[in-house]
Amino acid sequence: MNGRIAAVVGWPVAQSLSPVIHRHWFREYGIDGDYVALPVAPENFSRCITALPLMGFAGVNVTVPHKQSAAALAETLDEDARITGAVNLLVFGDHGIDGANTDVQGFLASLRETLPVDEIGNRPAVVLGAGGAARAIVLALDRAGFAGIRIVNRTRERAEAIASALALRTSCQVLEWGDWPNAFDNAGVLVNTTSLGMKGKAALELPLHHLPSDAAVADIVYNPVQTELLRQAAAAGHATMDGLGMLMHQAVPAFAAWFGVTPKVTAELRTKLLQVLARA
After folding, report:
1. Closest Cα to residue 132, out of 63, 232, 229, 208?
2. Are 157 and 177 in contact, with CB atoms under 8 Å apart?
3. Domains 4-102+251-279 and 116-238 fall in the same CATH topology
4. Is 4-102+251-279 in CATH node 3.40.50.10860?
């Protein structure tokens, strides 16, 4: 597979760290290839994707706002893509385009690597947000064994849509935004899947005193790596998990599918990403 190329497709996409991750692995494993960022407007998505195999692309990662469009375009879907309705990985082959969702396993791998899941996993998990990422996170938390998922979103209807879509697979409860005493009661982990706290966005401020002292706090935002939510949680003594782990781990199956090597997520890769973010 030497000389092959892959990409991340989004709108916008210049901020993506995926090229840094994959180019690091090219060098580490001595693979002749490249990975680029392609800005593709929503109205051009299908035409652009179907042209890429003709130019030698092995496949693409898909980021906002294209994940549902990618699910519709793919000729086959893996289980996680079917359940979540979102695709972040397309693999081009002789038989067509395969779609997969690696966000589920990416978050789950980071969770198990970073937090004491065996200690907190027998209690409810709280998920903030009801976007595309939230579906993947809910599914991952269910697979980790948490005792039910509480979904809290400013727009209740969107949270109920996720609960309904995943009702046959996990026990989801929808709570009102602001009902923190009930949402946080006996929770084992709190996960932010919203864009609040991201660079350029408003901070996410929560009354963490309602959260059990031994509960963990995770944020899938990775720019900044230490969001205000994570800083407040750490100051209150909670174990925390930032979004870089999920970002790195979700890239592993993509690289393996395109280039035939299963790369490792290392401290060296994390350091490189932190350096890039510090310069941004």
Report:
1. 63
2. no
3. yes
4. yes
Annotated catalytic residue within 67, 199, 201, 264: 67
Each domain of the chain, given as residue ranges in start order, spans 4-102+251-279, 116-238
Q: How far apart are CA 246 and CA 157, in angstroms?
A: 27
Return the CATH fold of 116-238.
Rossmann fold (3.40.50)
Query: Is residue 171 predicted with pLDDT exceeding 90?
Result: no
Mean confidence (pLDDT) of the chain: 95
Amino acid identity for residue 129 in this structure: G
Residue 3 has pLDDT above 90, yes or no: no
Answer yes or no: 272 catalytic. no
Residue 109 CA to residue 183 CA, distance in Å, equals: 25
**Band (234; pLDDT cuts 50, 70, 90):** very high
